[in-house]
Amino acid sequence: MKKRLNIGILGLGTVGSGVLHILKEHQEKISQVTGYTMGIKTALVRQIEKHQNQTDIHLTTDVETILKDPEIHIIVEVMGSIEPAKDYILQALKQGKHVVTANKDLIALHGNELTQVAKENHCDLYYEASVAGGIPILRALVDSLAADNIKKVMGIVNGTTNFMLTKMAKNGLSYEAVLAEAQALGFAEADPTNDVDGIDAARKMVILSRLAFGMNLPLSAISTGGIRSVTATDIQIAHQLGYTIKLIGAAEEQNGTIHGMVGPMLLPNEHPLSGVNNENNAVFVTGSSVGETMFYGPGAGELPTATSVVSDLITVAKNIRMHTTGDGFSHYQHETKLTAKEDIQAKYYLRLNMTDQTGTFLKLTQLFAAHQIGFEQIIQQPFDQNSAMVIIITHQGSKEQLDQAIAGLESDSDMVLKARFDVLEESICTKDY
Ligand SMILES: NC(=O)C1=CN([C@@H]2O[C@H](COP(=O)(O)OP(=O)(O)OC[C@H]3O[C@@H](n4cnc5c(N)ncnc54)[C@H](OP(=O)(O)O)[C@@H]3O)[C@@H](O)[C@H]2O)C=CC1
Ligand SMILES: N[C@@H](CC=O)C(=O)O
Ligand code: NA
């Protein structure tokens, strides 16, 4: 008879319920692949009554029941937030229990510390579900692409905002209506602020950068914007100009330095990321040898996310069988150096309201010319009796110069900046996809 590996699960919400389902439905395959039978022994929840009809596994509100149980070998943390999740994981690792988590907030902010404690205690710590839900992107970076030098990781890594932008673009629905739908479908975080303000995506870029470049890109160094400022007007105008607006996270290596951003970005309609819709995610990875690769799939939701969690459980089980636990997700480390702002190239979409009087346009062009920034496209439309709406797509230039020109624009009372988004400009835009 096969030996049993017992799991203690912390949280039985969207992802936790999915883990329960997959372990039950796919148990025959999992047992063949690992050589063990695996099952959940106890689940930690806040309110037992809420879950009594959902499952016949043992429910508890006392984490000690799980952490002190010598028969529990692996902890799955799918409760979210930093505390008490961090404390529970640390306690589990120190007691020799392996940990699988979907918690990107925790891994982005405290991943290095947790990895160190896992190593010291010869325990596994895996977190594939923390980035791009059901897409096996972290394993692809640390295993399949281990031979290459990764130059750039760019993608749609937040399902909620991609779902919202897709519905706003295709169905003309309001921001509030689409957010409520994403929450009802279980993609959005309990508090969706981090989703819509780009913070969730920025945290995922921290994790991706750590594994792709071996560098610790600090969250504070990622220029981060969300989708609150994206209006139906921007989506329509971008479309007329040949672009699709997506919330993009990007991190790029440049001569041994790294820089990252998260924000709404105009992508050429023919770019593969432009066709990634709804809650799907995609990560576009450029390696110096492999060239361009794209990993696509569901970025959130019960079963896709749980698939990644259970795959991590399978890896832990295999490691237990081969006595190789505690080896870590990746050994790759490189000194972290941030790219100087003057070395970062950018290109912007700007929407502004401008006093409709002779000379204001000239002031605008002079302002940008003074910073060596040219305009690629300009549209001007009447806005109201006294002002015009102006849309500009700049040429590519130094981010520092662009930001200085924009600071000048913002200090001029004749011009009010309403939106500023990045525009993708690189060789791939000219490729024939
Ligand atoms: N939803 C998704 O699509 C994805 C989520 N993730 C991540 O997975 C994790 C879980 O997300 P999700 O399943 O959506 O979250 P939910 O809010 O749906 O579920 C959270 C679960 O944790 C329990 N819980 C929370 N806090 C405590 C606490 N202090 N003590 C005991 N139990 C607690 C809740 O108990 P109760 O039910 O009693 O309230 C609930 O069962 C998060 O880190 C999230 O960021 C990652 C990728 C995708
Ligand atoms: N709220 C997140 C869930 C997955 O990480 C998202 O929408 O992507
Ligand atoms: Na993943």
UniProtKB/TrEMBL annotation:
<dbReference type="InterPro" id="IPR001342">
    <property type="entry name" value="HDH_cat"/>
</dbReference>
<dbReference type="InterPro" id="IPR002912">
    <property type="entry name" value="ACT_dom"/>
</dbReference>
<keyword id="KW-0560">Oxidoreductase</keyword>
<keyword id="KW-0479">Metal-binding</keyword>
<dbReference type="Pfam" id="PF03447">
    <property type="entry name" value="NAD_binding_3"/>
</dbReference>
<dbReference type="InterPro" id="IPR036291">
    <property type="entry name" value="NAD(P)-bd_dom_sf"/>
</dbReference>
<comment type="pathway">
    <text>Amino-acid biosynthesis; L-threonine biosynthesis; L-threonine from L-aspartate: step 3/5.</text>
</comment>
<feature type="active site" description="Proton donor">
    <location>
        <position position="204"/>
    </location>
</feature>
<comment type="similarity">
    <text>Belongs to the homoserine dehydrogenase family.</text>
</comment>
<protein>
    <recommendedName>
        <fullName>Homoserine dehydrogenase</fullName>
        <ecNumber>1.1.1.3</ecNumber>
    </recommendedName>
</protein>
<feature type="binding site">
    <location>
        <begin position="10"/>
        <end position="17"/>
    </location>
    <ligand>
        <name>NADP(+)</name>
    </ligand>
</feature>
<feature type="domain" description="ACT">
    <location>
        <begin position="349"/>
        <end position="424"/>
    </location>
</feature>
<feature type="binding site">
    <location>
        <position position="189"/>
    </location>
    <ligand>
        <name>L-homoserine</name>
    </ligand>
</feature>
<keyword id="KW-0915">Sodium</keyword>
<dbReference type="InterPro" id="IPR045865">
    <property type="entry name" value="ACT-like_dom_sf"/>
</dbReference>
<keyword id="KW-0791">Threonine biosynthesis</keyword>
<dbReference type="InterPro" id="IPR016204">
    <property type="entry name" value="HDH"/>
</dbReference>
<dbReference type="Pfam" id="PF00742">
    <property type="entry name" value="Homoserine_dh"/>
</dbReference>
<feature type="binding site">
    <location>
        <position position="104"/>
    </location>
    <ligand>
        <name>NADPH</name>
    </ligand>
</feature>
<keyword id="KW-0521">NADP</keyword>
<comment type="pathway">
    <text>Amino-acid biosynthesis; L-methionine biosynthesis via de novo pathway; L-homoserine from L-aspartate: step 3/3.</text>
</comment>
<dbReference type="InterPro" id="IPR019811">
    <property type="entry name" value="HDH_CS"/>
</dbReference>
<dbReference type="InterPro" id="IPR005106">
    <property type="entry name" value="Asp/hSer_DH_NAD-bd"/>
</dbReference>
<dbReference type="GO" id="GO:0009086">
    <property type="term" value="P:methionine biosynthetic process"/>
</dbReference>
<keyword id="KW-0486">Methionine biosynthesis</keyword>
<dbReference type="GO" id="GO:0009088">
    <property type="term" value="P:threonine biosynthetic process"/>
</dbReference>
<dbReference type="GO" id="GO:0050661">
    <property type="term" value="F:NADP binding"/>
</dbReference>
<dbReference type="GO" id="GO:0004412">
    <property type="term" value="F:homoserine dehydrogenase activity"/>
</dbReference>
<dbReference type="GO" id="GO:0046872">
    <property type="term" value="F:metal ion binding"/>
</dbReference>
<keyword id="KW-0520">NAD</keyword>
<keyword id="KW-0028">Amino-acid biosynthesis</keyword>
